[in-house]
Amino acid sequence: xxxxxxxxxxxxxxxxxxxxxxxxxxxxxxxxxxxxxxxxxxxxxxxxxxxxxxxxxxxxxxxxxxxxxxxxxxxxxxxxxxxxxxxxxxxxxxxxxxxxxxxxxxxxxxxxxxxxxxxxxxxxxxxxxxxxxxxxxxxxxxxxxxxxxxxxxxxxxxxxxxxxxxxxxxxxxxxxxxxxxxxxxxxxxxxxxxxxxxxxxxxxxxxxxxxxxxxxxxxxxxxxxxxxxxxxxxxxxxxxxxxxxxxxxxxxxxxxxxxxxxxxxxxxxxxxxxxxxxxxxxxxxxxxxxxxxxxxxxxxxxxxxxxxxxx
Length: 311
Known about the structure:
Elements: E1 3-5, E2 8-10, E3 15-18, E4 22-26, H1 33-40, E5 50-53, E6 56-57, E7 68-71, H2 83-90, H3 99-108, H4 122-135, E8 140-144, H5 152-165, E9 172-177, H6 180-186, E10 189-194, E11 197-203, H7 204-209, E12 211-216, E13 230-234, E14 239-244, H8 245-248, E15 256-258, H9 262-270, E16 304-309
Parallel strand pairs: 4-9, 4-10, 7-8, 8-9
Antiparallel strand pairs: 1-2, 3-16, 5-6, 5-16, 10-11, 12-14, 12-15, 13-14
Helix pairs in contact: 3-4, 4-5
């Protein structure tokens, strides 16, 4: 196994995020996203495998926290603090804290230094956490469901902030979310997790090309020996399922075959009914590091910003 949290287990986890890119980490609630992130950040022990973050084995040196910024789906600073007090509390922990940058970011984000943390909206709280991460000059940003509860305007602003952060080719982002529309805009790589297992990891195009949605009449898909049906749904008027792209060719012309959206992939993999994947890991699943040369064409480094190698 990879790691255990109570009765929940991560198993056979293997993924790699190259420097300079955004990896979307997607799966249904309870799939294991937060547990995986806790392991990658050294907040939880693993039983098997090897984790590397920015060139350091995890658990790494204390100095590693200088280069990693974390934005969670909940507040982690005292609600009664004013934003000026937040800086005074956080600054001693970071050797490269830039107070001027912090104040500039607050102004850019429309945040008042005199405001109390507890009075901020959900979107403003996310911006505060991003301002903290950028003010200590983090090279890797780790987001755990940052857009959960945000309205479309706030989510759009967040995507713009990440775009600015990535102008520096040495910066990387791990973006955990179940809102797939955000990742369709900024994701370079995608990792799908279900029931504690990595189902697929690769470039966004590789993930989308790996599956097909098939639809047919109510009597179709009844004799599909050797074809993996994912998220099978059968009604009185028809049937539909998702299949590995290679298996779609075995169905012939009996059904309509379409390329899925990212949301369809996540929903069907997360569906229990009619899913025959079990412990399988999806078609052509392999760590990003093994095929990084086929990924996005931006001029970025190929060394991993973050990697978990299952051994």
